[in-house]
Amino acid sequence: MKIGIIGSGAVGLLSAAYLSKNHEVTLYTRRKEQAELINAGGISLVKGNQESISLHLRAEDKPAYTEPLLIVTVKQYQLEDILNALKKSPPKTVLFLQNGMSHIPLLQTLSAHRVFVGIVEHGALKLSDNTVKHTGFGCIKVSPLFPGERLNELPVLKMQMDHFPFEYIGDWKYMMSQKLLVNACINPLTALLRVPNGELASNPMFNKMAESVFHEAMKVLSLEKGQEEWEHVMAICRNTAQNRSSMLKDIEEGRMTEIDGIIGYLINQAKTEKLEVPVLHFLYQAIRGMEG
Ligand code: PAF
């Protein structure tokens, strides 16, 4: 089927490289040079010591978005123009793959479309404008945002492929809250301390700091099963021990971070529920200050 992938960072390149094996993929880039590079040489997918080139796809820097299935991989703070374009477009199936939750109310205004949200559990590293390394094999979990949406509306779920599976989750709120908890505990602290994820599990002092973030975030998200959730966060730190979190990379490369969608969202929720979250405020200000 025809699939449009919007955003050509690590997740966009990885999705395009895999899905173009079975589908007619158009990858929407922001920069013309990147689109030209991909159209000339395809996307290189690096897995361990192997490298394969995906040539059967098209890259486009003009936002046509005509495909019946769109997969949106840009950061949450880059969504505005895409949402405005979608509001004028005929009904489509759209899968949003953003960290954080502050964009969810905006997606809820897209009721003319079949909207799915998803979380990416792959490790992916963009090595160049047309090279992506698959650093950790995971899956993409997807869930319908509007009640009554049928599973078979998302065709990629029916066409599974090795090393790039999709998994269906019924409860989008729990799925997104759990991922938000992981990102809240790992991303700002690793960016502030400039350490890879594993240090939050292995360094006892950093582990205590992660625990303080965890307690405040759990309170705001009203998640139960505290011990289980903590084990889950720690398991991700250990499984991605050598990885530098996306927020650490954003800071190192002088980009804007996703602090608003992650910690900003939690602070706003805490305000509504009249909860005190001093550690989250501290992290928010630290990262905002580092963004320069
Ligand atoms: O944003 C990230 O870096 C990732 O979502 C995670 C899970 C924290 C691993 O680095």
What do these coordinates show?
It is a single chain. This protein has 292 residues and is of the alpha/beta class. It has two domains: 2-170, Rossmann fold (3-Layer(aba) Sandwich), CATH 3.40.50; 174-291, N-(1-d-carboxylethyl)-l-norvaline Dehydrogenase, domain 2. 43% of the residues lie in helices and 20% in strands. The protein has eleven helices and twelve strands. The strands form two sheets. It has an eight-stranded mixed β-sheet with strand order 5-2-1-6-7-8-11-12. Helix 3 (80-87) links the parallel strand 6 and strand 7. Helix 5 crosses helix 8 and helix 5 (172-193) packs across helix 9 (246-252). The structure holds pantoate. Pantoate binds at residues 99, 182-183, 186-187, 197, 236, 240, 243, 245-246. Its EC number is 1.1.1.169. This is 2-dehydropantoate 2-reductase. It is an enzyme of class 1 (oxidoreductase). Keywords: Oxidoreductase.
